[in-house]
Amino acid sequence: MKILLCTNSFENVTNGPAKFANLILEINTLYPEHEIRIVTEDITKPHTNVYPVEVRLPRFLKLLSQFFRMFIYHNAAQKIQKEFAYDVLLYNNSFIGLWSAIVSKEPTVGMINDDNNIIIGWSNFKANSMWLKRFLFRKCEKLSVKYHQHILTNSDFLTEKVIAAYGHPQKVTRLYKSIDLSKNKFQADRPFLLPIRILFVKADFKRGNLQTLTDALALLDRFRFLVTVVGPEERFKPLIESYFIGKSNLQLDWKGEQSPDNVKQLMYECDIFCVPALQEALGVANIEALACGLPVVSTAVGGIPEVLDHGKNGWLVSPGNPNELSQVIENCITAIEQRKDKVSNGESFVKKFSKYVMYQELLAILQDVISHYTYRNASERTSSGS
Predict the structure, then answer these.
(1) In what order do the strands lie in the sheet with 2-7?
(2) Where is the Glycosyltransferase subfamily 4-like N-terminal domain (predicted)?
(3) Whole-structure pTM value
């Protein structure tokens, strides 16, 4: 089976889709009967089995950039097919694959990685460009579910949301995003010396609800905390610094954008991983923290409970509640035996997110898509011929 993955994120490995794109190239080595290649705009140097595609659009078309990507990536895929006759076209963003889904002669599979578009509706109307952009994206995402042969989501939560919003339940399958467990060393013993080190990793720090985290920690004034913030761009540093003003027991350890290796090193150095998100389809960073033996405190939203085994692997609180979050963080600090049990449970549980499990499930899904597509086309030709 030959697979071509189209992804607009690859080299800048800071999100789930980019990590997925980098991982699955290993299929070529582990399963030589299959071959996967990638086409992406996010590339600055040559990579084996990766094709560059250029996306250059004037600034005034930025709002519509994803619409233009539909045609740019489809045209690139058609050119690549002349030298790499792929059997299935896989899009890391189902919306960008919409045009291919409509016109391609090969089966297409799209991925929906979050519910950012699904949650947009007239009930939360805002008179700004972002709302309009998401509203249009939702319409196109719905069409992509209709026209793609199959849709992959990254959690049971998101699967239910996609089906409820867009229909076609027979087309939608959950495929957990995975991590390379072989690159993690499980380190359960944490010193918990003062200041206690809290690690927050989320580029979208508002969605990750960093302010609620600082408000919660300020309530625990018998402890001192060093809060390491990873992910946000430098331009947001002044706003984030304002979250720490007047909170004498907190100190900001600003890291900003960091490489995956640096983030992993911080997971070995810190005491607690806490991103009390308002919204999260899965939360790959929580998986990585569990694999490193880092205690995880998070919120019971989206796919996070699936990662934390509904509280067996960590602590879950309701979102946007500093009082509840402070109580749970204090429990994580002081209840040593409970903390050890949850961390130990996490070590076993993350095996379900192994990359090998993901590879096998992905290949089985794609093979099934190709088989059904081929059978359906053969049946249609037979019917038209008769």
Answers:
(1) 50-52, 35-40, 2-7, 88-91, 108-111, 150-153, 172-174
(2) 34-182
(3) 0.91
Domains of the chain plus CATH, in order, are: 2-178+354-385 (3.40.50.2000), 181-351 (3.40.50.2000)
Token duo for residue 171: 């087309």
96, 73 in Cβ contact below 8 A?
A: yes
254, 229 Cβ separation under 8 angstroms: yes
Tell me: pLDDT of 283 over 60.
yes
272: tokens are 């607690």
Least confident residue range of 43-47, 68-72, 184-188: 184-188
CA count, 13 A, side-chain hemisphere, 17: 22
On the 0-12 / 13-18 / 19+ scale of CB atoms within 10 A, 132 is: middle
**pLDDT > 90: what percent of the chain?**
80
Q: Find the mean pLDDT for residues 46-64.
A: 85
- Give the residues across from 250 on adjacent strands: 225
Predicted confidence (pLDDT) per residue in 161-207, tens digit: 999 999 999 999 999 988 888 888 898 888 899 999 999 999 999 99
Residue 233 amino acid letter: E
> In one letter, which amino acid is 176?
Y
